[in-house]
Design goal:
Layout lengths: L1 H30 L11 E4 L3 E4 L4 E3 L9 E3 L19 E7 L1 H4 L9 H9 L3 E7 L5 H12 L6 E6 L3 H4 L4 E2 L3 E2 L4 E3 L2 E3 L10 H12 L1 H7 L20 H18 L3 E6 L8 H12 L3 E3 L2 H10 L14 H17 L68 H6 L20 H32 L2 H12 L1
Parallel strand pairs: 5-6, 5-7, 7-12, 12-13
Antiparallel strand pairs: 1-2, 3-4, 8-9, 10-11
């Protein structure tokens, strides 16, 4: 009797396994073999950041050309040529932090944004690529603290993607990777303690099945709670994405300035970007004196002029032309705001919370660069996945990427001529005319404020709650 039950159980188990194998074979015939995604030899576990690149590794990350996507990791564990710890005399060094856009998936080393920026800036400048695929702002902050500071940069360019905001609050990402997560307590940023965990045996088995089985992937997409059984692990989130991201960027800004450099923040501006995150962050950065620039207008206009010429079609990462275009934008921005020029610290500047060394005490090449917060952000253009707004600049962009530098530079407001929200910028005022103009402007603002309050009061009493909420959603974009 017991033997019969055992044989029945084994027969049922064999039937289930056979059915699973048949289903897997059918799915592979219909959809092809599962993609394993990238070259695994490039990556290694990292105790503080979750993962990192393997020094000296080589691989291929092809996304559709025109480059083959050949990857070579230098001795420091980054893409690009080897970097000496000490700068050459008189040399300016720029560090570029980011995720897979800066890393350059699908792009050869000579076509990276950092390689283009190196050529554009010319002799006497060194641009170092610190982009790691999948990194969020928290990991980039740790990377700069561990590695970037020792490279003695003069400027740091942070390229943020829209998935950085939710990623900064999650401890488990991309279905298989643990990462550090910061918390904000009483307005202070709290760094995680201890080592980043690794996958357990059961988690590793589920990850292997997800990578090699199409049927398992389909099962993991089932509605809750069934789909959860096939996931490696569900991420835990903590904090508000915008608040945590702002705290991380400001912590990075403080660390960069303590190293004697200037922080500049860009967004990726890629096709389908969820731009609302960046648009919510920028006013907060402006209040705190951080240099930033939104790329969505320039890249959106480029996509309208040459659809499909700036990414890989099925993959929205920058291709060769987009890397070159972003490098030209960065060069124009650096020149417009004198990011790489030494600046003396003004006595009128507010002191920091902790004592900073004076200019005489600061080593050569490490003088603090103080630049007022300017922004070249303008209205978002229409395009695939973009909010449909009218472009502020009506000039069309020429077909090749190299012809947009003058257009990009002209869109940045200078310190004496600011671009208003609508219309043409007014000329700078001087002397008595400036004083009277300021008095008139203050009176106009007070009148406009009274008018706005009256309209707001009428709107609150005469408009249904649902209509007001819809308008709020639209204006938030």
């Amino acid at each position: 009797m017991a033997l019969g039950r055992l044989l029945s159980l084994l027969t049922a188990l064999a039937a289930v396994c056979a059915a699973v194998l048949v289903a897997e074979a059918a799915m592979r015939l219909a959809f092809g073999t599962p993609s394993l995604g990238g070259d695994r030899a490039l990556w290694r576990y990292d105790a503080t950041k979750g993962w990192a690149l393997t020094a000296g590794a080589r691989g291929i990350d092809y996304r559709g050309g025109p480059d083959a996507g050949e990857v070579h990791i230098n001795a420091r564990g980054f893409r690009g040529p080897d970097v000496a710890a000490a700068k050459a005399p008189g040399q300016k060094r720029v560090l570029v932090l980011g995720d897979s856009f800066v890393f350059g998936v699908g792009v050869d080393e000579g076509s990276l944004v950092t390689a283009w920026l190196q050529r554009l800036l010319g002799a006497g400048h060194e641009v170092v690529n610190l982009g790691i695929s999948g990194y969020s702002t928290d990991q980039q902050l740790i990377l700069f603290e561990e590695t970037g500071r020792r490279l003695r940069p003069d400027a740091v360019l942070l390229v943020m993607a829209d998935n950085d905001f939710p990623g900064n609050t999650q401890d488990f990402v991309y279905r298989a990777y643990y990462k550090p997560v910061f918390e904000t307590r009483a307005g202070a940023l709290v760094r995680p303690a201890g080592r980043v965990p690794t996958l357990s045996t059961s988690e590793g088995a589920r990850w292997w099945l997800w990578r090699h089985s199409l049927l398992w992937r389909r099962a993991s997409a089932l509605p809750e709670p069934l789909g959860r059984l096939f996931l490696v692990r569900s991420p835990r989130t903590s904090g508000d994405p915008l608040a945590v991201t702002l705290a991380l960027v400001m912590a990075l800004k403080e660390s960069v300035e303590d190293a004697g450099a200037t922080l500049v923040v860009f967004n990726t501006g890629h096709r389908g970007e969820e731009t609302r995150w960046h648009q919510s962050l920028r006013p907060l950065l402006r209040e705190r004196g951080c240099l930033f620039l939104g790329l969505e207008e320039t890249l959106g206009r480029a996509r309208l002029e040459r659809p499909g010429a700036w990414d890989f079609g099925r993959d929205s990462h920058w291709n060769v032309d987009a890397h070159r275009l972003v490098a030209e934008i960065a060069k124009a921005f650096f020149e417009r705001h004198a990011v790489l020029e030494d600046r003396a610290v003004s006595p009128a500047q507010p002191s920091r919370s902790r004592a900073a060394p004076s200019q005489a005490q600061r080593p050569e090449g490490r003088r603090r660069s103080r630049v007022g917060c300017e922004t070249g952000v303008s209205d978002v253009t229409a395009g695939s996945g973009w909010p449909e707004r009218q472009c502020r600049d009506s000039r069309s962009m020429a077909g090749r990427a190299g012809s947009v530098t003058q257009t990009v530079a002209a869109s940045f407001p200078s310190s004496t001529q600011r671009r208003p929200l609508f219309g043409r910028p007014s000329p700078p005022r001087t002397g008595t005319a400036a004083s009277s103009g300021r008095r008139r402007s203050r009176a106009d603002r007070e009148s406009a404020w009274r008018t706005a309050r009256a309209i707001s009061s009428f709107w609150a009493t005469a408009t249904p709650r649902v209509a007001r909420r819809r308008v709020g959603e639209v204006t938030h974009l």
